[in-house]
Amino acid sequence: MRIEENRPLAPLTTLGIGGPARWFVDARNEEDIAEAAEWAREKHILLFVLGGGSNLLVADAGFNGLVLHIGLKGVRVRESGASSNERVYEVAAGEDWDSFVQRAVSDNCAGIECLAGIPGTVGGTPVQNVGAYGQEVSAAIDCVRAFDLQTHAFVDFSAAECAFAYRHSRFNTTDRRLYVVTRVDYRLKLHGAPTLKYADLQKVFATDATTRLCDVAVAVRRIRQSKGMLLIEGDPDCRSAGSFFKNPIVDAEQAVAVTAAAGAEPPRFPAGPGHEGCVKLPAAWLIEKAGFTRGYSLGRAGISSKHTLALVNRGGATEADIMMLADRIRDAVAQRFGIHLQMEPEILGFEKP
């Protein structure tokens, strides 16, 4: 294990914002993780786990603790003992997520094809229960291996034990920052049919009865690119943390109030298990109806020119710039619709007053 001091964090995030980490470890195996955790515990130092940096806003002052960067690599494939039509991929947490999706699709394994083009690493997917275009990783996860920062032992969680919900898991709620994910096992369906629940995908493949997984993945990447949600070198709309706000889940009464306030019926989506009688509303629609347009700027921070849900660094933006814009958007949505948008990215090194 090698400990660095004052390592810049901005280059390790897609927003490109933030100061240095007081201490930094690039973990290449589970032993590095255990040693780094013990070092931080002995010295009473805060520990933060960093993956691909695609869902993170770092304070300009940096982080006065140890940043543990997860660099574990490797993918192991095994046939499922439960069914000959399933295949399990044991994927190290530091593997690039989109590269893994491409591999699964090329192997003709269904279950994550709609999650193509999402930046970040595999280890972050169960934490946020990453989802898009009609799929969530919770439906495909078989097991999550993690290091327990309290007992300093490695543990395995079944999908049921992860307590998945919309953009939630035990790892970002009840057990927030108590575990370091080191491996995620994905159980995928060999020769399975693609998921075509999302309206944009249904339009693309409406007349195609032989849609392939690879076709869906390509279409998803194209849609993401059109919305500035695909990382492309040189594209200013890519200097973001992806979707900055979660889509709010509201009850029937709130949905009616939103319609009355907007003078138009909002798009609605199923809220998912545990939210009976509720619907999910697009945060981007609410933001637009509250008066914000694509390309809106507030100093060096702005809204993507392709999608109102992404806040971008126009160049030289600080975390204060981003938060000022976020607050302005949240206040406007709350004032018009009575809905309080929740941030989706993790914040590091500062607390919002």
Count every beta strand, where a strand is a DSSP E run of 2 or more residues.
Answer: 21
In what range is the share of β-strand residues? 25-35%
Name of the level-1 CATH class of the largest domain: Alpha Beta
Largest sheet composition: 6 strands, antiparallel
What is the subunit arrangement here?
Answer: single chain
Order of helices and strands: EEHEEEEEHEHEEEEEHHEEHEEHEEEHE
Radius of gyration in whole Å, from Cα? 20 Å
> Which percent range fits the helix content?
10-25%
Write down the domain tally: 3
Within the CATH hierarchy, at the fold level, what is the topology of the largest domain?
A: Uridine Diphospho-n-acetylenolpyruvylglucosamine Reductase, domain 3
Provide mean pLDDT, rounded.
92
Name of the CATH architecture of the largest domain: 2-Layer Sandwich
Which spans have pLDDT < 50 for at least 5 consecutive residues? none
Distance between the amino and carboxyl termini: 36 Å
- Count, helices: 8
Gross morphology is: globular
